[in-house]
Amino acid sequence: MTTHQVVLSDGATLHVKVLGDNSPTKPLLIALHGAPGLSTHTEPEATFAFLATKFRVIVYDARGSGISDLKPPYTNERWIADVDEIRAWAGAEKFVLVGGSYGGFLSLDYALAFQHRLLALILRDTWAWGTRGMMNALKVSLTSDRIKVDPDRQTRMWTGILYDDQDYANAVAEMSALFQSPGIDPAQRKYSDPEALGETPQIHAATQNAAFSYNMPRFDVRSRLKDIMVPTLVIVGRHDLITPVAYSEEITNGIPNSQLAIFEKSGHNPGNDEPEAFQQRVLEFLSSARLL
User: Fold this and answer.
1) Could you tell me if 67 and 15 are in contact, meaning their C-beta atoms sit under 8 angstroms apart?
2) Does residue 78 surpass a pLDDT of 80?
3) Per-residue pLDDT tens for 84-100?
4) 2: which of 45, 53, 189, 221 is 20 to 30 A away, CA to CA?
5) Domain of life here (predicted)?
6) CA gyration radius, the chain
7) Rounded Cα distance, 158 and 105, in Å
8) DSSP class of residue 257?
9) CB-based contacts of 257: which residues, under 8 Å, 6+ apart?
């Protein structure tokens, strides 16, 4: 594993990790994290390190997240441009793109803008319509009997009007149980989920505010899913309340060359809840796409 500080065309520096050896003979896989301003490369690193013997696996903190530069704009357009700059930095013409949760939104946008760069697409627990998704997440956080939250604070988080970093940390902490599956013993999970505020001390409310006040109301790719022609694997946990199964079914029905994998014991991250089954299913997909 090697760590790099990659300077982009606008001067922003991203904290990037290359897992395994960086042989140019290996196909490239870039895995994007979720939760802008909260999640970091930690989750995709833990989830996809198993592929490092077969791929050059790149994970990184997106701009505005982790220890990468806090340099706006925090727009989907800028974030997908950053993905393509990381691809170019790695020296690959084509690659496999993986996105979980908010990283799935960016992966869909990337596929529609730069489809000629993709070998395959893997989407984990995500949605295709921002307004419905964020309103559902707010509804669940306010009505679930699994948690007790401050309604005003949750409204601030899901509409992108958080007061400050502490407000963001408090909002995530009080609803973290919604990311978990009730069928999985926390002690059996592969790692502590960064989106549940376990491993991420760098909290950036400004990034979250931009994502959910500006990007999400404008994000709706439902009518364009049919234009994505690359092999696609859509993964979702049966017990995911934030991005429920129906959202992944909608994506799978829309993308012509897609497969749906539902993990019956999992919540928001099957790679964490059912790691062995998850890894096997990803390998099967990559093999079917003739990438192994």
Assistant:
1) yes
2) yes
3) 999 999 999 999 999 99
4) 189
5) Eukaryota
6) 17
7) 15
8) T
9) 229, 230, 231, 232
Express each pLDDT in 165-212 by its tens digit.
Answer: 999 999 999 998 888 887 776 666 655 554 543 444 689 999 999 999
Q: Which domain holds residue 81?
A: 2-288
Our count of domains for the chain comes to 1
Q: Which amino acid is at 61?
A: D
As given in the structure block, the two tokens for residue 140 are: 């669940």
For residue 240, count other CB atoms closer than 10 A to its CB: 27
Tell me the C-alpha distance between 60 and 284, whole Å: 25
| Phi, psi at 15, each rounded to 5° | -85, 110
Beta strands in the chain (DSSP E): 2-7, 13-19, 28-32, 56-60, 95-100, 118-124, 232-237, 258-263
Query: Which residue is listed with tokens 């084509």?
Result: 94
**Tokens (6 digits) for 205:** 């409310």
Contact 90, 181 (CB under 8 A): no
C-alpha span between 142 and 254 (Å, rounded): 30
CA atoms within 13 A on the CB side of 80: 21
Residue that is written with structure tokens 């234009």 in the block: 227
Q: Quote the CA–CA distance of 195 and 179 in Å, as a whole number.
A: 8
- Annotate 217-229 with b (16+ C-beta within 10 A) or e (fewer): eebebeeebeebe
In this predicted structure, the answer to whether residue 234 has a pLDDT above a threshold of 80 is: yes
Note whether 44 and 98 are within 8 A (CB): yes
Residue 92 identity (one-letter amino acid)? A
Using an 8 Å Cβ cutoff, are 99 and 105 in contact?
Answer: yes
CATH of the domain at 154: 3.40.50.1820
Token pair belonging to 279: 């890894």
Cα separation, 213 vs 159, whole angstroms: 5
Backbone angles phi, psi at 291, to 5 degrees: -110, 0
Count the residues in the chain: 292
